[in-house]
């Protein structure tokens, strides 16, 4: 029991360390919502954008992220910003505060929220020394990732293929297991379970972010409400895209 508790402690500690970028950003989101002075010269969104830039530079300077990982995180930023531009234009959510660093109503710091997921994925992969069994072919993972990303846009104009995508993900990753090292001993779990847990904690972080009024869904304008559980499914699918993008620099290795 003592060994398992020690492993659980190290597992949680390493997970928190892997979440460094996202954790710091979420901390700034909540504290700035609670304590940002009214009428400040610098807009809160701009403060978050500049803070995210500083955090990213420091993580590179302190070698907490590699240059290759930073490149992938930059791709996350672009992919996320494009999605934000589209989703806000169709009214899926909006950013209620004004600021300077924005494009068509989308604050530039919003891309860093997607980048924080990429940062976590890249760091946790390296920190836990991920290895896999029955990992799907790379071409198949990229195909499903492209289909998932496209559906985030096309479901506004045609049939939502979400359930077909869920089924495809289960078929593709159903046998895959990820092996990792919390504290000297190799452990493993199904890849689908790992993705499910990751999506769940991102959904919790999203609730904290909307509480901090960083962005608001239509049902939250009259007062904060829990983010619908349907968004959990969206985050699960986004985890697939995240994992595939990270394989650009972290090739899946067999156990």
**What would the average pLDDT be, to the nearest integer?**
90
Please write the string of helix (H) and strand (E) elements: HHHHEEHEHHEEHH
Could you name the ranges where pLDDT drops below 50 across 5 or more consecutive residues?
Answer: none
- Biggest sheet strand order reads 3-4-5
**Overall SS class:** mainly alpha
Q: What is the terminal-to-terminal distance?
A: 26 Å
User: What is the share of helical residues?
Assistant: 55-70%
Strand-residue fraction?
5-15%
Number of strands: 5
Give the CA-based shape: globular
Q: Can you summarize the main beta sheet?
A: 3 strands, antiparallel
**Count of DSSP helices?**
9
Any idea what the radius of gyration is? 19 Å
List keywords for this structure.
6% strand, mainly alpha, 255 residues, two-stranded antiparallel ribbon, globular, three-stranded antiparallel sheet, 9 helices, 62% helix
Describe it for me?
It contains nine helices and five strands. The chain is mainly alpha-helical. It is 62% helix and 6% strand.
Question: Secondary-structure blueprint of this entry?
Answer:
Blueprint: H1 2-18, H2 20-35, H3 44-61, H4 67-89, E1 102-103, E2 106-107, H5 110-127, E3 131-133, H6 138-154, H7 162-173, E4 177-180, E5 187-190, H8 191-211, H9 230-246
Antiparallel strand pairs: 1-2, 3-4, 4-5
Helix pairs in contact: 1-5, 2-3, 2-5, 4-5, 5-9, 6-7, 6-9, 8-9
Short description:
With 255 residues, this protein is mainly alpha-helical.
């Amino acid at each position: 029991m003592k060994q398992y508790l020690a492993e659980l402690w190290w597992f949680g500690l390493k997970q928190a360390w892997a979440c460094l970028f996202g954790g710091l950003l979420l901390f700034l989101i909540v504290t700035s919502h609670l304590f940002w002075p009214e009428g400040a010269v610098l807009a809160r969104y701009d403060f978050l954008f500049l803070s995210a830039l500083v955090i990213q530079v420091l993580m590179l300077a302190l070698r907490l992220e590699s240059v290759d990982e930073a490149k992938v995180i930059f791709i996350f930023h672009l992919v996320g910003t494009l999605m934000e531009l589209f989703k806000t234009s169709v009214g899926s959510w909006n950013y209620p505060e004004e600021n300077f660093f924005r494009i068509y109503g989308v604050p530039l710091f919003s891309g860093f929220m997607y980048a924080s997921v990429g940062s976590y994925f890249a760091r946790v992969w390296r920190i836990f020394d991920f290895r896999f069994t029955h990992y799907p072919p790379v071409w198949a993972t990229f195909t499903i990732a492209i289909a998932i990303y496209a559906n985030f846009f096309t479901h506004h104009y045609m049939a939502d293929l979400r359930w077909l995508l869920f089924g495809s993900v289960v078929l593709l990753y159903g046998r895959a297991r990820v092996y990792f090292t919390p504290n000297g001993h190799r452990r493993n779990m199904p890849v689908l379970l790992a993705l499910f847990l990751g999506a769940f904690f991102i959904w919790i972080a999203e609730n904290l972010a909307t509480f901090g009024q960083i962005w608001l869904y239509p049902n939250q304008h009259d007062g904060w409400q829990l983010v619908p559980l349907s968004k959990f499914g969206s985050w699960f699918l986004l985890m697939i895209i995240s994992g595939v993008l990270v394989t650009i620099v972290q090739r899946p290795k067999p156990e």
